[in-house]
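Give me structure tokens for this 220-residue protein.
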Amino acid sequence: MKNCSNCGKSIPADSKFCIYCGAEQKMVESDNKSDEQPTVTVQPQQTVQQPQQQTTSDNMVTATATTNKPKNLTAIIIAIVVVAVVLIGGLGVFGYQNYKRNHQTQQQVADLGYTKATKVFGKNIEVYYNKSVNRFDIIGKDGSALDTDVRAAIGDEEPYSTIYKYKDKLKEFNESLKSKMPDKSKDDFETTIVNPVDHTRAIYTVRDGNLVYNFERDGF
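Here you go.
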């Protein structure tokens, strides 16, 4: 309640005019500001994304480029072992073959000569190996081309030129044997076409790929 500013009578505190005299009342603001509640405006929270800063400290692990290393060391080791085994095995095989070549019997050398000679002269021949003189003797069997041609030439039925081809064949035979002969025999062995009329005489003899005896030149 408050008193009218004109007549002094009590009127409600919020009256703008006196209910008794009608006088306009002045509004008096309350001095008790402690009852007023301040208005607080809440601003929406904004999230500010700060740029990341690259820092380095003792506690940080920095990724570094790695050098490519063999991913399968076991496979590499196995490959090396396999290569080594192959090399050792190859050397072993070579050594064994070399041993066999250098320890052939006289019969084995003779058989080797026959095999090589038939590839050059044909199968209708005979081959003998004399180890003491280190010589292969080739004789054409009766009726063979070698036997017929040689008999005709030395019997003057045909010119000598008809058997010149056998000089080249004999050289070929000699060369084909060289890598198969024992080391102690391969440089000086001889290959001979035997005279079919006299087996103690030769028609042609080749040593180390060279014609060392020619019946035309050296006589029978």
